């Protein structure tokens, strides 16, 4: 490595004089000796460590509303054979490969939304939170810190809107010590979602341990939040320019939000699709976490057909950061075309 | 807005009780009066302004080398009729539309690379710089500040490698007051590029004012940097794991860099393609800034065919942030599939 550095730093390379690597290696010692005092570089400084990954924070304008995408991190699922319920694992692997994604695990990214609308700060979905509801290997649960990096504290948040009651969406509603994580915020949840998970008669019908855990988690979190939580149906304006829309299927009360300001519009779709490379490309594939997969597919196609026709921007909790894209038709499915990164201040 | 806020904050919305917006409007005044004291929200605080757009900084691992994408901003070109030299403006507009991009202007993003390789800090291309070589309307020229946001100062940079001598790539080599912008860095430029722009016999052959400006700018910048600048040819390892590759066509000496560590590899392609939505999709389109457009197309196809075959990650100075993607074949051209955002610390 010393010899290599010597070549790089000290060897003259004339414009009209091509030097191949082997010859350069032979010359390196001599060049080092000859040019040590004439080297134009600064004295060798201690290696600087690379910074940690920066918080993923991106601002997108929706008319007069600012939409911030703020990453919560990712969680990886090691098994390909139980992520899609109606397709074999090798077909899942082929689709991941076609998107240049690893096939040894399926990684889902989590990106809560923060809206600044008429001076109100509105968070949509919360990430996995501090309570380790999902094994994230330290990569998930960044939202609270990343919100701070964007200049806001949890105390600044006026409203939290929830799409559905899976752990990566509601986990951040409470702290590790079971207190409300957004102390000054009014929490809004889909009425049908709340009714389903709070009805104890639904629990025995559930097929898996994971579902039982979902019930217990929801009860724990909404036990902490108590009766202050407000429930909404579809078609209600919950904050200036932010209207709920029923998109049931992924869960019984799964909801989305339409954000409009002037001529601009973004649909916050929650989990109408979870992993975009799988279910946008193949809307007929059924996610193992889609509780009513047939209804989920109908909802997906209805929303996406409309988005294609109207060229609507869709925000997906699990879409590649900054989680914003347009949809184009491709074969029997769709293709996600990410929105260009906005560098304007 | 007061009435709307009252609805949002204070109206009870029962799970079993769908309330439509018109009824809610009528109820708002009464609800406000009835619930003012019982509202579970914090006292109304002053609206918090949305933060400025965060610096675009993203870390990608190439084996043991850290590759940081750091945005310099964007520049928009208002005319569609002189951006592509062999295709009419309406065809350019249709292709932009198919990528859901505006058609009133063409926006190019600028993303210099910072490599941390064996403790050395290597910058590849510099952005437009402070000297207003390009009219960026205040959006370009962010690299120096964004580098600081990543935890580095310009004095930490050990080497700067240049792909070619267009303003958005070399503009940041000098400060506004004509000093070297990276005071401790050894600057490396393609030998053929340096030879072309420094040969005054080439200037009278140039067809446009823009080209004359390019010559004058290059001479001004390399006049400041003087004889310390080193020139390289293709196939030379300039920093640990960073090897030059001749990719002439866009300019006479245009060069790329292959970054390898272990089994990992990224090709830093400079301007083999400028706007990805245009020239990756249509590699036979000729950019107006491609100085030898036939050679540029050959270079593009050769590099991209190899990238498709080997599934190589390509880094493009003008690709959507974080400027990293794979290429897939599509019709007679290619499609860029962006690399998933990496949230791991």
Give the tags.
Metallo-beta-lactamase, Chain A; 16 strands; homodimer; alpha+beta; seven-stranded mixed beta sheet; disordered N terminus; 27% helix; 2 domains; 345 residues
Question: Can you describe what's shown?
Answer:
- The structure is a homodimer of 345-residue chains.
- The longest helix of chain A is centred in the C-terminal third of the chain and has 18 residues, at 293-310.
- The model of chain A is unreliable at 1-43 (pLDDT under 50).
- In chain A, 27% of the residues lie in helices and 23% in strands.
- Chain A is globular, with a radius of gyration of 25 Å.
- Chain A has two domains: 1-49, no CATH class; 57-338, Metallo-beta-lactamase, Chain A, CATH 3.60.15.
- By secondary structure, chain A is of the alpha+beta class.
- Chain A has nine helices and 16 strands.
- Chain A has a seven-stranded mixed β-sheet. In chain A, strands 10-11-12-13-14-15-16 form a seven-stranded mixed β-sheet.
- Chains A and B meet through helix 1, strand 1, helix 6, strand 9 and strand 10 of A and helix 1, strand 1, helix 6, strand 9 and strand 10 of B.
Short note summarizing the structure:
The structure is a homodimer of 345-residue chains. With 345 residues, the first copy, chain A, is α+β, with helices and mostly antiparallel strands. Chain A has helices at 2-10, 21-35, 89-98, 143-149, 167-170, 191-198, 209-225, 276-279, 293-310, and strands at residues 57-62, 65-70, 73-77, 106-110, 113-117, 120-124, 159-161, 186-190, 230-232, 237-239, 242-246, 255-261, 264-268, 313-315, 324-330, 333-338.
